[in-house]
Amino acid sequence: MLDIAFIRNNPEVVKEGARKKRMKVDIDELLSVDNDMRRLKTEVETLRADRNRISKDVSKSSGPERDDLIQQIKFIKNGLTEKEPKLKELEERFEQLMLFVPNPPLPEAPEGDSEEDNVLIRKVGQVPQFDFTPKDHLELAESLDMVDMPRAVKFAGARMYFLKNEGALLEFALFKFALDHLASKGFQPMIVPQLVRREAMVGTGFFPLGEEDTFFVSKDDLYLVGTAEVSLVSYHMDEILSESELPKRYCGYSTCFRREAGSYGRDTKGFYRLHQFNKVEQVVICENDPEVSMREHKLLLENAEEIMQALGLPYRVALACTGEIGQGQVLKHEIETWMPSRGKYSETHSCSSLHEFQSRRLRIRYRGADGKVKPCHTLNNTAVASPRIMIPILENFQNADGSVTIPEVLRPLMRGMERIEPKNSK
RNA sequence: GGAGAGAUGACCGAGCGGCCGAAGGUGCUCGCCUGCUAAGCGAGUGUGGGGUGUAGAGUCCCACCGAGGGUUCGAAUCCCUCUCUCUCCGCCA
Fold it and tell me: Is A350 a catalytic residue?
């Protein structure tokens, strides 16, 4: 959500932002509703002021004078009964329109339509050269008996899976490693609610646009989160924090549920696109200062890169183009990891700054040193998401004999195992 | 799931249908005072929105005492619905 005053004063900036993001939104309609709403509001408030004033006199009067005052109020109330529903209608329309206005991207976000227009920032690590025919991650995972997809699909449907044996252990090791790393840097570890109310989904900006992609538990009116970001950001909903306690830095673990509506037939094989996965997410809530949030943005990116480097995975960092940036984000970096079977770097992390977009929706504010209450800035980035991260781990670290070498940092977390060996029986 | 109690400002907590945007305290800000610290003294300090005003300051108004309806000239106070919290019982990782 943007500040309506900002939209009023800078309609062209907002329109240009929407255009860059390739999003359709009718700012002129919004402003016209805003205008009508304010005009009517003034009328209604004048009537209310009259009513309140006269009503106070009622208590001081008596007899015919009193009856006369009450008559006057009844007359005013007629005007109110006529105007109030119209005002309410306009206000609802206004709120609705506001939910769709995209946050204009920062100037440093490159303009573009799709992934191809993202700008490469840096490459880290060596892409492996195999002197044997490498397998893809699914083949590896099956031969290593780390996964069972067919049995899951049989009773749970497409894009479902079991992780088993070293697969299960590896995932826990990854999350433990990530949480430890972030906790050591002062991020507060959290295990978060995975079922949330609509308010949290709208508040974090996933709704209304992302509603189709979300699982809904209708009996209880609760939504399954697609990321811990929803809960971590909503944590401070409706609060006024003090500047001295900022920034708030969190790392949260959750399972993530995504319907993947509209992606039928895409990435159907393997670990890339699943209905359910697990993730450690980083979230920062900080002061309303673009420089501060940019610093935090870099910190979040750096944390994720440190984890990637510790794992020894070859990756690159790209700056997402405007067409790839979500509605609420002003800047987004992606970490893409080398996946041999795809023959390219593919997204494993997404680092976003949202400025006031979420905090306005959720009313997360803080009292500045000047005594003024301001909306915070919010940011988030993946720390590690699995099983997707297992694609590059399995594929990059595979050996000629079909085994996979476990990254050193994870070995202490996997009972000292150094390799995952192929199994014969299933 | 059954029975009962509750939801008030950044936080805690009082509140008779008009004198309540709301006592008191804590916190915070500013000042004073005291070898230092702690304490003490004084003053200030709600949110959101609309109008006016040169962004500002100021000023006027509206709304808000969990949310939404209702009664009333007038509702934090009365009634209804919902949500959440707590206690007890049941069930349960």
Answer: yes
